[in-house]
Amino acid sequence: MKIGYARVSTDGQNLDLQRCALSAAGCERIFEDHGFSATRVTRPGLKAALRCLRRGDTLVVWRFDRLARSVPHLSSIISGLQRRGVGFASVTEAIDTSSEIGELILWVLGAVAGFERCLIKSRIAAGLDAARARGQQLGRRPSLSAEQRAEVKELLASQSVTAGELAERFHVHPRTIRRCLVRGAGDT
Question: Would you name the residues annotated as active-site residues?
Answer without folding.
Answer: 9
